[in-house]
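Weekly sync notes, structure subgroup
Attendees: PM, AL, DS (notes)

Item 1: joint prediction request from the bench team. They want all two components modeled as one assembly rather than separately. Inputs as received:
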Amino acid sequence: MTVTVERGGRGGGRIVEAHHRAKSPRRPRDSYALFLLPGALAFLAIVIVPFLMNTGVSFTEWQGVGSPKWAGLANYRELMDDAEFWASFRHSLFMVLAMAAVPTLLGLVLAAALFDFVGKHFGSRTAAVLRACFYLPQVLPIAVAGIVWSWILAPDNGSLNELLKAIGLGSLQQDWLGDPDIALYTVMGVMVWVQLGFPLVIFMAGLQRVDPQLYEAAELDGAGWWRRFWHVTLPQIRPEIYVVLLWCTIAALKVFGAVYVLTKGGPGGATNVPSYFSFTTFFEKTQVGYGAAISTVLTVIILVLALVGLKLQTRAEDAEQGVVR
Amino acid sequence: MLTARSRVMAAAAAVVSTTLLLASCGDSDSGSSDGKTLKLWHYEGPDSAMAVAWNAAIKEFEKTHPGVKVKFEEKGFEQIQKTAPMVLNSNDAPDLMEYNKGNATAGHLSQQGLLTDLSAEVTERGWDKKLSAGVRTTSQYDAKGVMGSGKWYGIPNYAEYTMVFYNKDLFAKYKIAEPKTFDELTAAMDTFVDEGITPLANAGAEYMAQQYLYQLALSKADRAWVDSYELYKGKSDFHDAAWTYGAETFADWVKKGYISKKSTGTKAEDAGVSFMQGKSPILFSGSWWYGRFAAENKFDWGTFLWPGSNMTLGSGGNLWVVPKGAKNKELAYDFIDITMSKKIQNLLGNKGGVPVAADPAAITDPQAKGLIADFNTLSERDGLAFYPDWPAPGFYDVLVSETQKLITGSAKPDAYLDAVQSAYDKGVRDQ
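Output from the run, pasted for the record:
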């Protein structure tokens, strides 16, 4: 099959299958549409319709049962002045750091180290085992991981504090999840552990498709490990980096399970995040209208971030391929 | 353009997909209204006194109702708490369900018209005569969903109250006698602190911490104060003498080391385990721990009511409620009737529960006798003061969060009382 890239023109750059075009007058997307239909319907039923319903509810005052009362923008006005809501969003930014930025950076370094060093010196099987170990937290249900971590981090007799005492660092013992000054950082640490495996696996898969000749050429030119990483690895796996950053940022903005199991937003609201705040507003306070307003704002923010991320990714890929849109 | 064939296929796919989606969104069980099935939900742990008693009640029910099957589904407390309004508003509602009592829970559902008014059955079957005034409070709700008066929307089969659980072996080891007064209790705690032991098991991340504070406030309160707070029969001022004493004493106890600063993030289970492992000599909590301590404690232990206080936390237990949409209401009433029978009530009492209609002579277990005697003492002096989180939906989380700040010292008692007052006023207003 011949694949060509059309540049410019009325429709902009697009990939067309020249062979198919010559053989059949029907455009490929006509036959694909049928396959997309069930997915599109499911998307409509379980994402779009509930989102629109949720948005509708956010303009009401409602306790979840009985008749909702129209409240206009009152919930959104209340949201703007709600210190707890803004605090939860500030915590979300810390979660983005812990679940997107740090795992991406660490994942890059670890993936390169496993691929370049461990794989070459200890064999690909060793690298695969280590990769699986890093990925394990992704497979564990967050409820299980959270309970285990709450044992490890328990102030009295928790393994971490016991370990610190055993190695003579007793002065570093902390009430990891109970001290409002450090609880958020502790949850962030757990989330780095949870999240690290995902970028690592994606980056290692990305590294396998990089042409080894590029590395050989760079090596022949006298480039050291760092230069090869910077000038070959990073540009080559840029699409994977975009995907990982986008995916992890969205995961960070809607993080819920870990906060629910580890701290329930405490102590004193120190680890509250928008999704947990929304959950308690819905189910504890039964302020469904207000909870819906929180969810709507959260969804819009995630949507905007996702669209911006996708746009940036497409632009970068186009620039790389020389496609003009 | 799609060809005609493609359009037909697309339309067929759309119809199939939509049908599947709608089927998945629709009700999975339309229930039975044939009078042959009693659909029953409760969330008591399988080893608890209540579950043992109710399992016996199920057997009794099936014996007395030949051909009727009890379809029991075990649920979690949180599960029912969070989803009850939605479930009760659907076709999936059971015929009989255990539900949490109080204004923000059963009261809220009754106000929304989701529960059956049981008043006629209560009179006809004589359930009202079996329940004492304190226990009955949580069964009746007025048109605004406030407990204490109005129609009957639930029946409790047991009661619960808080008490001081103490490790007799540890008290003996440090030559401390069982405290009879509040001063003796604090003196005992001083001795433990001097020995490097944190005396009180506490859980800042869950209900336990707020219950310590509420108990301290209750020691300076009376029935009118409780009625103002829980039944809105007056204005609750969180800067009054009782609340101020509660908050200041609680903060002081953290400073003195009676309560660990490290208990901010711990859960009730951690506190219970700490007591069971003999690490904390004292735990103040509810009768729901009793059966477990009886089964698992490896040391000699005892209980006493909070000294120096006429009132303590407690109420009728969780309620049997009959959803408005229940399909077999008569069967549900029959089941409640069986759980109120002497046979089942006596079993509940002997298994470490607090029955509401048992025959005192039939309770043979000595520890169970003591537990029930203390409840009777409380009942006679009208000492059940309910729970601090009941007055408004979401107030539980506020109390957890604010009490955590009091433990860490990030909020002073005055700021704590301000924050709680503001949340209480808003919660009550929004109800």
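Discussion: The beta strands of chain A are 3-6, 14-17, 60-61, 69-70.
Action: AL to compare against the crosslinking data before next sync.
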